[in-house]
Write a structure and sequence with these properties.
Elements lengths: L4 H12 L4 E5 L6 E5 L2 E9 L3 E9 L2 E7 L4 E6 L6 E3 L9 E8 L2 E7 L14 H10 L6 E5 L2 E6 L4 H20 L1
Antiparallel strand pairs: 1-4, 2-3, 4-5, 5-6, 6-11, 7-9, 7-10, 8-9, 10-11
């Protein structure tokens, strides 16, 4: 049985000397929402659930934010990237469009890009560092990885804290190898 979001965040926070904070992040990648007609500044979830708890920490010189609700844990690791795309979910934040499928290390992923064109034959998707990071976390069917210009995010279905650590380690290695290119 999967641990609760609070338990997962507590373990990660304790391990990194951070603390859990309350949040209300309406992430369009995992929930849909509308403005309250009586108060336009207030959002109301229509489906899914906003991310309700968060921790922030420094991990090997990179800033990391973890947000969770009862179903998902989003890990965002900040750093500069030259490409924007997502695997296994069309990113609604970046306005990505379906671009077919791509195969990385023998695994098949749904690809979404800004243009809607498959650019997987070049760029970050084909680097060994990116493949190693994906191999370490083995994203499931309802999970995804998103690259933005300002960092990389992974959406996990309430993973074991050790899996989150693997993602953070893999992302740091990925960023370090990307800087050396």
């Amino acid at each position: 049985m999967a641990a609760s979001a609070r338990t997962i965040l507590e373990k990660i926070a304790k391990h990194h000397g951070s603390r859990i904070q309350e949040a209300r992040d309406y992430d369009p990648n995992i929930c849909s929402f509308a403005h309250n007609p009586k108060n336009r500044a207030e959002l109301i979830a229509k489906s899914g659930q906003p991310l309700l708890r968060k921790i922030t920490l420094e991990f090997k010189d990179l800033r990391v934010q973890l947000f969770a609700n009862d179903y998902y844990l989003r890990v965002m690791i900040f750093g500069q990237l030259p490409e924007v795309f997502s695997l296994n979910r069309i990113d609604k934040i970046a306005g990505l469009r379906p671009a077919g499928i791509t195969v990385i290390s023998g695994r098949v992923y749904q690809l979404a890009t800004q243009s809607g064109s498959d650019t997987s034959s070049k760029g970050i998707l084909q680097t060994p560092a990116f493949a190693q990071m994906l191999d370490a976390i083995t994203i499931g069917e309802n999970e995804s990885v998103h690259l933005y210009r300002n960092g990389i995010a992974a959406y996990f279905c309430l993973p074991d804290p050790a899996r989150v650590e693997l993602f953070m380690e893999g992302a740091v290695s990925f960023f370090n190898k990307l800087r050396l290119r």
